[in-house]
Amino acid sequence: MNALTRGSSRFQSVVSGYMLAMTLGIAAGGVSAFPVQALIQTPTQAPTQAPTGNISALTQLALVQAPGGATPESSRDAQQAGEFANEGVRAFSNGNTERAFAQWQQALALYERVGDRAAVGRMLENLSVIHRLADRPVEALALSQQALALYESMGVLSAQPSLYLNLGSAYRLAAQMPEAIAAYEQGLAIYQRDQDETGERIMLSLLAQTYKDLSDYPQTIRYQEQVLAIAQRRGDRVTTGEALSELGYAYLMSEQSDRAAAYYQSALELFQQMGDRAQIVVTLNNLGRAAAFSENYDQALSAYQQAQVMFQAINRPDQAAQVLVNIAQAQLSQGETDKAVTSFQQAVDLFESYRQPANADLSPRLEAAYRSLSTLLLQQNRNDEAQQILNLI
Hints:
The protein has 393 residues and is an all-alpha fold. 71% of the residues lie in helices and 0% in strands.
């Protein structure tokens, strides 16, 4: 299956700062965490950079107050810890994860000194997030588990959905999927109990993505349908479009191409209403794939050709080349060999125009396209041209 069929995973639209907070669980100060949102992770790759965006509305948290009877020194430590914590959030929101990490480490040390255990838990969660974004699952898991043990000892674990969000994501990064699912489900139960639909939607989406990682598409569909229902009820068009696209992918992988096409068509219409070109183009390609699976090659070609033009317009030559391969395959399925040769040749020429270095390895799919073109040229007795293509592999 072409990577471009993965719903909105590769060309995920940029979401608001509020949404960027929800799957990271960043907190400032020592008060209860309200998770700041993360990009929906791709099914095969964890993010390596912090998202950027305006998260100020979520981080206007009071500095930790020193407990009654505290010494002036402990009061100063508590205030300074809060300043470090909030500065870490500001750095994180600006994409500076190294500074955020350093600030939160300093805050953690001060919170430990003044004995603010709740704030210690928050900083452990935040530091875990940085490790997760840097693809360090062992360190991320260790810190999330420390936070879990701390909250449990305080008797407040049932009020910490962000902990389960971070813990589940660390398990997922470590490819410990059963543990990730269990953590997400615990967080989901808390959000549902608290009637927090935003948190509920994020947890449902993470569960859907985890089952997608496992190629368990019935479960993927089950959770994405709940995401879709919440998004539609709240009038959230961005999430509605993404959920429709993810459902299209799940049905396509379940070999229910007609249902997949229906979901992709609905997603396409919504993205067109919003003018989201990045989502429009990937959805067109996905719609083409669904149509091709249904052997509706005219519809597939129409969608592919629109996608190919758009990919070129937004300067995505790699994706444009991939779609040209899709076009060639659809043309071959229709028995239009000459057109397929032309499309394969265009894909090769386009890829070679930006191939760096010149002998860079081809992806398996592009290598197959080069070999298909060579075979077709041989069938047309164009032996020298066929060999020239093989020499490029």
